[in-house]
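Review form for a predicted model. The reviewer records the input and the model, then writes brief findings.
Reviewer: anonymous (R2)
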Amino acid sequence: MVVGKVANEKSFAKLFKQNSIKFLMPKKDLEFVKKVQKEITLLSNASALLGWDQQVYMPKKASQDRAEQATILDGILHKKITDDKFYKAVLSLSKSKLPNDDARTIEILKRDLGKARKLPNEFIEELSKTTSQAFDAWQEARERKDFKIFLPHLKKIVELKKKQAKYIGLAGHTYNSLLDSFEEGMTVEELKPKFEKLKIELIELIKKIENSEKYKTQKNIFENYTFSNDKQIIMSKEIAEKIGLKKDISRVDISTHPFTIRLGTKDVRITTNVRTDPLFSLLSTMHEAGHALYEIQMPEKFKYTALMDTPSLGIHESQSRFWENMVGRNKPFWKYYSKQFKSEFGLKEKEEEIFSSVNHIFPGKIRIESDEVHYCLHVILRFEIEIDLIAGKISVEELPKIWNNKMKELFGVTPKNDAEGVLQDVHWSGGSFGYFPTYALGTIYASQIYEQMKKEIPKIEEEIEKGNFEKMQKWLGEKIHSQGRKYLAEDLIKKVCGEGLNPEVYIKYLTKKFSEIYGF
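Model under review:
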């Protein structure tokens, strides 16, 4: 739904089309809009810096001050975004004949500002302060494995997100108004049946794997070793640089939950963490580096404009899942990397045994530690919970029980405590309802992108085996990163792959890979 249409817009468009009237570019309006976009971008970067510091370096007792700082800054930012003069200039430009990139920028701004103007400034300030305080409560609750500590904060966030959805008021399910902020154009009505089908096909594939002889006798060789935390971090940083994330424009730090954030066109920060599994740090770093490479390969000409962005978080996630799964979990990469991995950690097993352990299938409880086959089931679980929460079908108090029941139903396991269950993700503390589905969408897109890349660069897997990632990085840059937000997600995937979202490509990829590994 587009907000703020002027009364005569349709007749104006018709007149323009019929008579090919040429309008002079309103130069002052365009210059003003570009100036405000720059200010918004810089303020957003400053706000992002506060968020990065809170998750990485900020002292624990600084949380109240940080909440006040974030509230003030987010309020200023929202006022600037919703300023009447800015919006009127955008509306004026939307009726003018502009160069393609400027026209697309104005189209995006008109839509985004229309949505933003529906949210009162008092609401934005309340949401900002609530989520800033909620993050610290989530961390404490997670450490103590006690959902009750986070409960009152999450209740308030859910009520605020319901209110936000009503303010936005998109058609269909209430959740659409939240989902659209992360995956423009996507709806519950379109996504739910696709996820239902994907769920069925994934469960069928898991049964085939579990019934195989190899599954019954599989061994995870990593359980036989102790892996130095320091070495894991060093190797993770090295692989991030190897695949293209240069030190002079990036940082790799540690946080509870790995994430990526852009603070400028030459300043992108990623974080990782260490678990018992030595692959966690490596693969989460490759995942976040994929996000970061996307950010730094957007063209300078889009700097400080609405085009300097991704079409959707599903597309953004396709880049992180591409490097994590299509590269980091596949055989060509381990033909290249096994020797170094064995040398650093003293492994004695053969390359094939390492590769099998990298793709060890098990019904884990933690999404970010999940294997490829179970991963999207974790996402679907969260999607189902979120739409019921926002629709008011379930309460926040019921979440631990509902979460555990769904884990038992989908995975056959039950979390031992809240940290393993409902508290494992940071997203709800930040109010990011509607974000989780993009992980599954990105995973599907990644398989489609890789299939197309192999068609266009037939020897790309030979390049990976040699540790050469330049062609891959360049192809992704040209096909996806350089497009910024010029296209909607579905249109971009069609442009790159010849078709839109297709979960069958992902299922086909998984079936081929794991039938070879498990011999069914």
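Findings: Residues 9-118 form one domain.
Further findings: Residues 27-56 form the longest helix (30 residues).
Recommendation: see findings above.
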